């Protein structure tokens, strides 16, 4: 289902009905919340879903955490507000990893999200509910957030398009902060056209978010690009990483497909990328430990009030947060402590700068960078990994967050019946170029697959 196909119809009730009937097992929608959009808007009648870390006034925003289980949003996020004004109607909030920390959506206080394409497997995370809901066909699009890959990874696992715009394209006002220098709202849908349409509506400078930038090129009007005219680079790390063999084969198929269309594809060594996961897992937990300090039982959400003040703080956080969130807070607090700040945190910032500069220089020469979105196929529910194994699932997605670059997951066929996705990374604030290449690739790949069935 796409926005384009739905314009002019009212499918709000039909979508809500689908969720009620189908979502008990998938568990992608935490609550139905009906906020009807502007009746005179072009898109009236079209529903969307929003990740539960984005505020909608008067409704709950739980971040899939016990600590915010009953938290009511005092205002509406800018991105949601703009969609409502354009006529779209919000019909619910989606499940996620607690505070957007995770890759499989198994860190939710409200239970995991199943993959709609194979119920024995995870949806991916942390925007797993937003990806599964689009994959299951409830709505044409949803909003998620992407700090290290949380839109692209679940999009890849659920077989949908997932786009993280350049840092600054979309206001973060009304988004629960995880790692503010990396966080960005992203869009999940079934086509690049729809993604472009939604970003065009919600993008732009916002006085409530000083990190927003103005972007004046229309994202929807020029979505075709001659693939024989583009230069693509593949970072060598893709071939050095321990990839599932089927992923390797499917990725090579995508490369051959592009070469057959005339694209120039080159493998280049970017040794700096080896450090991106390490750098991310210093910077993101450090920012998170600071951002999450406000959840102490005083102003927001859950409070364990039976004890004195100090014990109230301690036990509220002990009971209110899940294990992964606590792990991040502890790591972050350690990294920022006086003795380790310069050893870890400030060093990570320097390496982040080196990685970013390298990527900017490379993307001066190449139109896009290409990788598989995930190094692995969607794991089974409950398949146990150690934290490091989870963290490595972000190997290909993190660099775009570190450098603020736009990046997109495009579905490309199936592996053992499961969706597989290609990631394209583009130039900073040139999201229109990336979207045009991604759209042309997606549409021509779909035609090719149809031909082969
Ligand atoms: N998987 C990464 C993490 O757990 C990324 C999360 C995200 O993008 N929100 O931090």
List the helices and strands and how they pair.
Blueprint: H1 3-6, H2 12-26, E1 29-35, E2 47-51, H3 78-85, E3 89-94, E4 114-115, E5 118-122, H4 128-135, E6 141-146, H5 152-158, E7 161-164, E8 184-189, H6 192-202, E9 231-235, H7 237-240, H8 245-260, E10 264-268, H9 276-291, H10 309-320, H11 323-336, H12 341-365, E11 368-372, H13 387-391, H14 398-403, E12 407-415, E13 418-425, H15 431-452
Parallel strand pairs: 2-3, 2-6, 9-10, 9-11
Antiparallel strand pairs: 1-3, 4-5, 6-8, 7-8, 7-12, 11-13, 12-13
Bound molecules: glutamine.
Glutamine binds at residues 100-103, 126, 145-150, 178, 284, 394.
Tell me what the structure shows:
With 453 residues, this protein is an alpha/beta fold. It folds into two domains: 3-228 and 369-452, Amidase signature (AS) enzymes; 274-348, no CATH class. The protein is 38% helix and 16% strand. It is built from 15 helices and 13 strands. The chain has helices at 3-6, 12-26, 78-85, 128-135, 152-158, 192-202, 237-240, 245-260, 276-291, 309-320, 323-336, 341-365, 387-391, 398-403, 431-452; strands spanning 29-35, 47-51, 89-94, 114-115, 118-122, 141-146, 161-164, 184-189, 231-235, 264-268, 368-372, 407-415, 418-425. The strands form two sheets. It has an eleven-stranded mixed sheet with strand order 1-3-2-6-8-7-12-13-11-9-10, sandwiched between helices. A hairpin with a 2-residue loop joins strand 12 and strand 13 (418-425). Helix 4 packs parallel to helix 5 and helix 9 crosses helix 12 (341-365). The two termini are 21 Å apart. The mean pLDDT is 96. The site of glutamine (GLN) has 14 residues, from strand 6.
């Amino acid at each position: 289902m796409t926005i384009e196909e739905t314009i002019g119809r009212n499918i709000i009730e039909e979508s809500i009905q689908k969720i009620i009937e189908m979502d008990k097992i998938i568990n992608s929608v935490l609550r139905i919340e009906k906020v009807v959009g502007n009746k005179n808007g072009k898109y009236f009648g079209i529903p969307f879903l929003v990740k539960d870390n984005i505020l909608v006034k008067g409704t709950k925003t739980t971040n899939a955490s016990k600590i915010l289980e009953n938290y009511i949003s005092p205002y509406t996020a800018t991105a949601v507000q703009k969609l409502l004004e354009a006529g779209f109607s919000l019909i619910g909030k989606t499940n996620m990893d607690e505070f957007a920390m995770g890759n499989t959506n198994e860190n939710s206080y409200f239970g995991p999200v199943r993959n709609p394409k194979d119920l024995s497997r995870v949806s991916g995370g942390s925007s797993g509910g937003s990806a599964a809901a689009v994959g299951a066909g409830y709505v044409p699009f949803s909003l998620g957030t992407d700090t290290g890959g949380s839109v692209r990874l679940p999009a890849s696992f659920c077989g949908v398009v997932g786009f993280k715009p350049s840092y600054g394209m979309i206001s973060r006002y009304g988004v629960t902060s995880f790692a503010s220098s990396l966080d960005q709202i992203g869009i999940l849908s079934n086509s690049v056209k729809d993604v472009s349409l939604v970003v065009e509506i919600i993008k732009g400078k916002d006085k409530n978010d000083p990190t927003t930038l103005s972007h004046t090129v229309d994202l929807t009007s020029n979505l075709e690009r001659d693939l024989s005219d583009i230069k693509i680079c593949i970072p060598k790390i893709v071939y050095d990483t321990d990839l599932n063999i089927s992923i390797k084969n499917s990725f090579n198929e995508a490369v051959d497909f592009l070469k057959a269309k005339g694209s120039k594809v080159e493998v280049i060594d970017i040794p700096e990328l080896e450090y991106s996961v390490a750098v991310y897992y210093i910077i993101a937990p450090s920012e998170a430990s600071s951002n999450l300090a406000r959840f102490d039982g005083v102003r927001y959400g859950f409070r364990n009030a039976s004890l004195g003040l100090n014990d109230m703080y301690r036990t509220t956080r002990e009971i209110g947060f899940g294990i992964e969130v606590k792990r991040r807070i502890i790591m972050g607090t350690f990294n920022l402590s006086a003795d380790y700040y310069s050893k870890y945190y400030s060093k990570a910032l320097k390496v982040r700068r080196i990685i970013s500069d390298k990527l900017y220089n490379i993307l001066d020469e190449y139109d896009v960078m290409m990788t598989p979105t995930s190094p692995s196929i969607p794991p089974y529910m409950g398949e146990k990994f150690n934290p490091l194994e989870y963290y490595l699932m972000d190997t290909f997605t993190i660099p775009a967050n570190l450098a603020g670059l736009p990046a997109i997951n495009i579905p490309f066929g199936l592996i053992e019946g499961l969706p597989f996705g290609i990631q394209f990374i583009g130039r900073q604030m040139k999201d229109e170029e990336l979207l045009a290449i991604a759209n042309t690739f997606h549409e021509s790949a779909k035609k090719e697959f149809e031909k082969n069935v």
